[in-house]
Amino acid sequence: MTSHPAIGRRQFLTGALGTAAMIATPGLLAGCGDGGTTAGGDQNKASGSARLPNYTPYTGVTPDLKGNRQGLLDAFLKYPEPPVKASDGPPGDGGQFSAFVLTNSPVPPAVGQNPFWQEMNRRLGVDLRLTIVPNPDMPTKFATLVAGDDLPDVIVPALFTPNGLPAGTANLPAWLAAKCQDLSPYLSGDAVQEYPFLANLPTDAWRDCRYNGGIYGLPVPRGIGGTLMMRRDDLFTQLGANLQPGSFAEFRDVCRQVTDARANRWALAQAPLDFVRQMLGNPWRWKLEGGKLVSAYESEEFSQALADTARLVQDGVVHPDSFSNNAPTKKWFNAGSAMMITDRYTAWPQFFAENIAGPGFEIGGMRPPRHGGGGFAATWQAQATNNFTAFKKADEGRIRALLKVCNWLAAPFGTEEWLLRRYGVAGVHYRMADGGPELTQAGVSQTVLGIRYIVDAPDVIFVPGEAEATRKSYEYQKSIIPTAVKDPTLGLFSDTWSRRSGQLGTIVNDAQMDILSGRKPVSAWDDVLKQWRSTGGDKVRVEFEEAIANSAD
């Protein structure tokens, strides 16, 4: 089947560098401290920190494959039929609901020419006034919005996204305190039970909404499955290739085996630096040792990963155009020009939505083997949120009215509300095929309002119309999540990181590009590391160490 791919978190990789290109520019979805992870959890110990909402899972829909509290997502082999009606009427009061939202798709038709938008207004009981901004324009548009000081009810700036932090953003906590609403009185502890779909959001996602000792937004949660190596199992099977190498040497052999430049086929869509780093036990960003942070870049394992990955490039097993800007890596993977690609779990259904290979198209997941053999290496946990939404300061009645609408927008997978929010009206915007919704052309153009970036339900594993693909994605994540390593700085804030992450990322990314492409030797990394540290890396380290110490008080 074919359908419009869901808008997921911005892909973890670009061109040849893979997710390493994002390591120095993760988001600023940061709170201060830790919190209880279950209903009735202890008050957060960090000085001045608000208690997180008490988690109460929604039980109205039963998944086909059950997730767990370790981070494994629920999986559905088909959309529940009939879907559950989870609300008893429009949550709004007939007034306006204004929002500044992003989109990764072409901006949809305005409300007067958009039946989906009109239907959302009716079902929500509000007049949705949306400022929909393409993701590349977000930093400029957000700066203009802030400068004009005329904020909408809710704000979803690119500033908050974990993989797209604009350089130059400074002192986010102070801006939130001055302009935005502390939602703690309405959401902390059991207060969130007034909004049951918000209470269904995972605790880790709420941690990323906490600043200034309060809760300053609603999260858009995502699963913690991080950098995953996906492979074309249908093509691997045809070539008789090893689906699961047991060491770096075996991985290199497989890459050579499946590469045939004459047939326009390469093993890898991009240089697999992160995959090799995982083989070597190199952390995503930081490792905590005795209360001190050690950067991933400072270890021998990182230098070795650079050297090993450069060898793969020299072997000719990486697509030769992968170092170009905006390389179409996903298209190569779908077309079979690249046999493996690293991406997030959210890309799995997108590949099937864009399938051009026919009914035999099959994807599998490769686990990173330990570099020298002897079992599997750990993967990295990803940020638990895609972004969060701040509220403009308002009186209690207005905040509660907005929260009621947002609660509806967080209705879980399997409900009528989720299906309408994501796919629109049956027969107009989508049709059901093989147990999954398939967007019509009207659905493709009209439904991308950006409202799923205001707040969203907990993510699930679901490939529409592809039950076996859903099962394979679930089993892959089930195999890696129990041993996945969490970065010690997730959920914490560093002002220097918020200001200089773009600059630091450029230093790292440019150097990696030079080394992997063979323009510079691996030994050049020593000077890059010195520059990274003096430009702000060491200061970021100190600020995160202070945040870790405070969160443990």
UniProtKB/TrEMBL annotation:
Signal peptide: none annotated. It comes from the Bacteria. Gene3D superfamilies: Periplasmic binding protein-like II (3.40.190.10). It holds the Pfam family SBP_bac_8. This is Sugar ABC transporter substrate-binding protein.
